[in-house]
Protein backbone atom coordinates (compact mmCIF):
# COMPACT_ATOMS: atom_id res chain seq x y z
CA UNK A 1 0.00 0.00 0.00
CA UNK A 2 1.21 3.50 -0.83
CA UNK A 3 2.45 5.11 2.43
CA UNK A 4 0.68 8.38 1.64
CA UNK A 5 -2.56 6.53 0.96
CA UNK A 6 -2.18 4.56 4.19
CA UNK A 7 -1.52 7.79 6.13
CA UNK A 8 -4.63 9.32 4.65
CA UNK A 9 -6.74 6.34 5.66
CA UNK A 10 -5.42 6.57 9.22
CA UNK A 11 -6.44 10.23 9.34
CA UNK A 12 -9.96 9.24 8.33
CA UNK A 13 -10.48 7.02 11.37
CA UNK A 14 -12.28 9.96 12.94
CA UNK A 15 -13.16 13.55 12.03
CA UNK A 16 -10.33 15.97 12.83
CA UNK A 17 -11.00 18.20 15.81
CA UNK A 18 -7.76 20.18 16.09
CA UNK A 19 -7.05 21.22 12.48
CA UNK A 20 -8.96 22.36 9.39
CA UNK A 21 -10.57 19.72 7.19
CA UNK A 22 -8.67 18.75 4.07
CA UNK A 23 -10.79 18.78 0.92
CA UNK A 24 -11.05 15.00 0.62
CA UNK A 25 -12.07 14.80 4.31
CA UNK A 26 -14.92 17.22 3.65
CA UNK A 27 -16.22 14.83 1.00
CA UNK A 28 -15.61 11.70 3.10
CA UNK A 29 -17.48 12.96 6.15
CA UNK A 30 -20.19 14.58 4.01
CA UNK A 31 -20.99 11.19 2.48
CA UNK A 32 -20.94 9.52 5.92
CA UNK A 33 -23.29 12.18 7.25
CA UNK A 34 -25.63 11.69 4.29
CA UNK A 35 -25.74 7.99 5.19
CA UNK A 36 -26.17 8.82 8.88
CA UNK A 37 -29.13 11.06 8.09
CA UNK A 38 -30.47 8.42 5.68
CA UNK A 39 -30.46 10.78 2.76
CA UNK A 40 -28.32 8.08 1.12
CA UNK A 41 -29.66 4.52 1.22
CA UNK A 42 -28.42 1.17 -0.13
CA UNK A 43 -28.69 1.21 -3.92
CA UNK A 44 -28.41 5.00 -4.23
CA UNK A 45 -25.78 6.36 -6.61
CA UNK A 46 -23.41 9.31 -6.16
CA UNK A 47 -21.89 11.13 -9.12
CA UNK A 48 -18.54 12.86 -8.97
CA UNK A 49 -19.62 15.94 -10.92
CA UNK A 50 -22.81 16.48 -8.90
CA UNK A 51 -20.98 16.06 -5.59
CA UNK A 52 -18.26 18.47 -6.72
CA UNK A 53 -20.88 21.11 -7.53
CA UNK A 54 -22.81 20.49 -4.31
CA UNK A 55 -19.75 20.98 -2.11
CA UNK A 56 -18.05 23.66 -4.19
CA UNK A 57 -14.89 21.60 -4.60
CA UNK A 58 -12.81 20.64 -7.58
CA UNK A 59 -13.28 17.14 -8.93
CA UNK A 60 -9.81 15.95 -7.81
CA UNK A 61 -10.46 15.78 -4.03
CA UNK A 62 -13.98 14.49 -4.70
CA UNK A 63 -12.57 11.67 -6.82
CA UNK A 64 -9.93 10.95 -4.14
CA UNK A 65 -12.52 10.76 -1.37
CA UNK A 66 -14.89 8.58 -3.40
CA UNK A 67 -12.02 6.20 -4.19
CA UNK A 68 -11.23 5.97 -0.50
CA UNK A 69 -14.85 5.32 0.34
CA UNK A 70 -14.74 2.44 -2.14
CA UNK A 71 -11.54 1.14 -0.53
CA UNK A 72 -13.24 1.30 2.87
CA UNK A 73 -16.24 -0.73 1.70
CA UNK A 74 -18.73 2.13 2.07
CA UNK A 75 -19.27 2.59 -1.67
CA UNK A 76 -18.93 0.47 -4.80
CA UNK A 77 -17.74 1.46 -8.27
CA UNK A 78 -18.62 -1.48 -10.52
CA UNK A 79 -16.61 -1.76 -13.72
CA UNK A 80 -18.33 -0.31 -16.74
CA UNK A 81 -20.78 1.82 -14.75
CA UNK A 82 -21.00 5.51 -13.97
CA UNK A 83 -21.18 6.75 -10.43
CA UNK A 84 -20.49 5.33 -6.98
CA UNK A 85 -23.15 3.14 -5.45
CA UNK A 86 -24.10 2.52 -1.82
CA UNK A 87 -23.79 -1.29 -1.51
CA UNK A 88 -26.80 -3.54 -1.20
CA UNK A 89 -27.03 -5.09 2.26
CA UNK A 90 -28.10 -8.57 3.31
CA UNK A 91 -28.39 -10.70 6.42
CA UNK A 92 -25.68 -13.02 5.08
CA UNK A 93 -23.26 -10.14 4.51
CA UNK A 94 -24.08 -8.80 7.98
CA UNK A 95 -23.13 -12.13 9.55
CA UNK A 96 -19.91 -12.37 7.59
CA UNK A 97 -18.74 -8.83 8.28
CA UNK A 98 -19.33 -9.13 12.03
CA UNK A 99 -17.61 -12.52 12.11
CA UNK A 100 -14.60 -10.84 10.50
CA UNK A 101 -14.73 -8.00 13.01
CA UNK A 102 -14.85 -10.47 15.89
CA UNK A 103 -11.71 -12.23 14.63
CA UNK A 104 -9.81 -8.98 14.07
CA UNK A 105 -10.94 -7.08 17.15
CA UNK A 106 -10.54 -9.92 19.63
CA UNK A 107 -6.97 -10.39 18.39
CA UNK A 108 -6.29 -6.65 18.65
CA UNK A 109 -7.81 -6.50 22.14
CA UNK A 110 -5.53 -9.29 23.34
CA UNK A 111 -2.52 -7.45 21.90
CA UNK A 112 -3.69 -4.20 23.48
CA UNK A 113 -3.77 -5.92 26.88
CA UNK A 114 -0.15 -6.92 26.33
CA UNK A 115 1.13 -3.60 25.00
CA UNK A 116 -1.05 -0.82 26.46
CA UNK A 117 0.72 1.93 28.34
CA UNK A 118 -0.80 4.07 31.06
CA UNK A 119 -1.54 6.82 28.54
CA UNK A 120 -3.34 4.34 26.30
CA UNK A 121 -5.63 3.30 29.12
CA UNK A 122 -6.29 6.95 29.88
CA UNK A 123 -7.20 7.56 26.25
CA UNK A 124 -9.72 4.71 26.24
CA UNK A 125 -11.21 5.92 29.52
CA UNK A 126 -11.58 9.45 28.12
CA UNK A 127 -13.34 8.19 24.99
CA UNK A 128 -15.59 6.08 27.20
CA UNK A 129 -16.47 9.12 29.32
CA UNK A 130 -17.52 10.94 26.16
CA UNK A 131 -19.66 7.98 25.09
CA UNK A 132 -21.49 8.12 28.41
CA UNK A 133 -21.88 11.90 28.17
CA UNK A 134 -23.26 11.84 24.62
CA UNK A 135 -25.61 8.98 25.44
CA UNK A 136 -26.98 10.85 28.46
CA UNK A 137 -27.44 13.93 26.23
CA UNK A 138 -29.22 11.82 23.57
CA UNK A 139 -26.62 13.07 21.07
CA UNK A 140 -26.59 10.17 18.62
CA UNK A 141 -24.16 11.74 16.14
CA UNK A 142 -21.38 12.46 18.67
CA UNK A 143 -22.03 9.20 20.49
CA UNK A 144 -21.50 7.27 17.24
CA UNK A 145 -18.31 9.18 16.48
CA UNK A 146 -16.95 8.43 19.95
CA UNK A 147 -17.81 4.77 19.38
CA UNK A 148 -15.85 4.79 16.11
CA UNK A 149 -12.91 6.41 17.88
CA UNK A 150 -12.96 3.78 20.62
CA UNK A 151 -12.72 0.83 18.24
CA UNK A 152 -9.93 2.38 16.21
CA UNK A 153 -8.05 3.26 19.41
CA UNK A 154 -8.11 -0.35 20.64
CA UNK A 155 -6.92 -1.52 17.24
CA UNK A 156 -4.10 1.03 17.20
CA UNK A 157 -3.01 0.22 20.76
CA UNK A 158 -2.76 -3.44 19.74
CA UNK A 159 0.13 -2.33 17.56
CA UNK A 160 -0.22 -4.74 14.64
CA UNK A 161 -0.33 -2.72 11.42
CA UNK A 162 -1.57 -5.68 9.37
CA UNK A 163 -4.56 -6.11 11.64
CA UNK A 164 -5.19 -2.37 11.30
CA UNK A 165 -5.12 -2.52 7.51
CA UNK A 166 -7.50 -5.47 7.44
CA UNK A 167 -9.76 -3.88 10.05
CA UNK A 168 -10.58 -0.57 8.37
CA UNK A 169 -12.70 -1.79 5.42
CA UNK A 170 -14.38 -4.44 7.58
CA UNK A 171 -15.27 -1.90 10.26
CA UNK A 172 -16.62 0.72 7.88
CA UNK A 173 -18.67 -1.88 6.01
CA UNK A 174 -20.18 -3.01 9.32
CA UNK A 175 -21.10 0.60 10.06
CA UNK A 176 -23.57 0.52 7.20
CA UNK A 177 -25.56 -2.04 9.19
CA UNK A 178 -25.16 -0.11 12.43
CA UNK A 179 -26.27 3.08 10.75
CA UNK A 180 -29.30 1.72 8.92
CA UNK A 181 -30.49 -1.04 11.26
CA UNK A 182 -29.35 -0.35 14.84
CA UNK A 183 -31.64 1.70 17.06
CA UNK A 184 -30.16 4.34 19.34
CA UNK A 185 -31.59 4.13 22.84
CA UNK A 186 -30.19 6.75 25.24
CA UNK A 187 -29.26 5.01 28.47
CA UNK A 188 -30.52 5.90 31.91
CA UNK A 189 -28.23 6.62 34.85
CA UNK A 190 -28.27 3.06 36.16
CA UNK A 191 -27.43 1.61 32.74
CA UNK A 192 -24.66 4.15 32.17
CA UNK A 193 -22.87 3.23 35.40
CA UNK A 194 -23.48 -0.52 35.24
CA UNK A 195 -20.45 -2.80 34.97
CA UNK A 196 -22.37 -5.26 32.82
CA UNK A 197 -25.35 -5.32 30.51
CA UNK A 198 -26.18 -5.37 26.83
CA UNK A 199 -25.15 -1.83 25.98
CA UNK A 200 -22.01 -0.55 24.31
CA UNK A 201 -20.72 1.68 27.15
CA UNK A 202 -20.92 -1.20 29.67
CA UNK A 203 -19.26 -3.58 27.20
CA UNK A 204 -16.55 -1.04 26.38
CA UNK A 205 -15.93 -0.56 30.11
CA UNK A 206 -15.43 -4.32 30.51
CA UNK A 207 -12.92 -4.28 27.67
CA UNK A 208 -11.02 -1.36 29.20
CA UNK A 209 -10.82 -3.15 32.55
CA UNK A 210 -9.41 -6.27 30.89
CA UNK A 211 -6.81 -4.25 28.99
CA UNK A 212 -5.86 -2.33 32.15
CA UNK A 213 -5.41 -5.64 34.03
CA UNK A 214 -3.16 -6.85 31.21
CA UNK A 215 -5.42 -9.86 30.73
CA UNK A 216 -5.24 -10.79 27.01
CA UNK A 217 -7.76 -13.67 27.18
CA UNK A 218 -10.27 -11.57 29.08
CA UNK A 219 -9.79 -8.67 26.65
CA UNK A 220 -10.32 -10.92 23.63
CA UNK A 221 -13.44 -12.37 25.25
CA UNK A 222 -14.82 -8.90 26.07
CA UNK A 223 -14.27 -7.72 22.48
CA UNK A 224 -15.93 -10.82 21.03
CA UNK A 225 -18.91 -10.61 23.38
CA UNK A 226 -19.37 -6.94 22.55
CA UNK A 227 -19.67 -7.69 18.83
CA UNK A 228 -21.99 -10.64 19.40
CA UNK A 229 -24.15 -8.43 21.57
CA UNK A 230 -24.30 -5.82 18.81
CA UNK A 231 -25.75 -8.28 16.31
CA UNK A 232 -27.98 -9.98 18.89
CA UNK A 233 -29.48 -6.98 20.68
CA UNK A 234 -28.82 -3.74 18.79
CA UNK A 235 -29.12 -4.55 15.08
CA UNK A 236 -32.74 -5.40 14.38
CA UNK A 237 -33.52 -7.67 11.42
CA UNK A 238 -37.16 -8.65 11.94
CA UNK A 239 -38.58 -5.23 11.17
CA UNK A 240 -40.21 -3.47 8.24
CA UNK A 241 -37.17 -1.22 8.14
CA UNK A 242 -34.83 -4.20 7.67
CA UNK A 243 -37.05 -5.62 4.96
CA UNK A 244 -36.89 -2.29 3.16
CA UNK A 245 -33.11 -2.01 3.53
CA UNK A 246 -32.62 -5.58 2.35
CA UNK A 247 -34.77 -4.94 -0.69
CA UNK A 248 -37.98 -6.47 0.62
CA UNK A 249 -36.56 -9.50 2.42
CA UNK A 250 -34.92 -9.91 5.83
CA UNK A 251 -33.47 -13.30 4.91
Name its key features.
251 residues, mainly alpha, Four Helix Bundle (Hemerythrin (Met), subunit A), 2 domains, two-stranded antiparallel sheet, disordered N terminus
Can you put this structure into words, describing what you see?
By secondary structure, the protein is mainly alpha-helical. The protein has helices spanning 3-11, 23-36, 48-55, 59-71, 91-115, 118-136, 140-158, 161-181, 189-193, 200-212, 216-234, 240-245, and strands spanning 45-46, 84-85. It is globular, with a radius of gyration of 18 Å. The model is unreliable at 1-16 (pLDDT under 50).
What topology does this entry show?
Blueprint: H1 3-11, H2 23-36, E1 45-46, H3 48-55, H4 59-71, E2 84-85, H5 91-115, H6 118-136, H7 140-158, H8 161-181, H9 189-193, H10 200-212, H11 216-234, H12 240-245
Antiparallel strand pairs: 1-2
Q: SS-based structural class?
A: mainly alpha
What would the average pLDDT be, to the nearest integer? 85
Shape type: globular
CATH superfamily of the largest domain: GntR ligand-binding domain-like
| Percent helix range | 55-70%
Strand content: under 5%
CATH topology type of the largest domain:
Four Helix Bundle (Hemerythrin (Met), subunit A)
Short characterization:
By secondary structure, the protein is mainly alpha-helical.
